[in-house]
Amino acid sequence: MMKKKISNLGKGDYSELKNQLFKDETVDSLYDKIKAFENTKKED
């Protein structure tokens, strides 16, 4: 399984994927989500 994933590196339209994943995000919204995630990790 891992070989298949590695063999796919460098293939595909990563710009399109990035646009889909972060379509409604801003730097501020991503920052807030990262800070919230970091805070939950500190509590564990």
Low-confidence stretches: none
Basic shape: elongated
The ordered H/E elements are HHH
Determine the strand fraction and express it as a percent band.
under 5%
Total separate domains: 1
How far is the N terminus from the C terminus?
31 Å
Radius of gyration: 15 Å
SS class: mainly alpha
- Percent of residues in helices comes to over 70%
Strand count, sense and barrel status of the largest sheet are:
none
Mean pLDDT: 81
Note down, in words, how this protein is organized.
By secondary structure, the protein is mainly alpha-helical. The protein has one domain (12-43). The protein is 70% helix and 0% strand. The chain is built from three helices and no strands. It is elongated, with a radius of gyration of 15 Å. It starts with a helix and ends with a helix.
Short note summarizing the structure:
70% of the residues lie in helices and 0% in strands. It has 44 residues and is mostly helical.
List keywords for this structure.
3 helices, 44 residues, elongated, mainly alpha
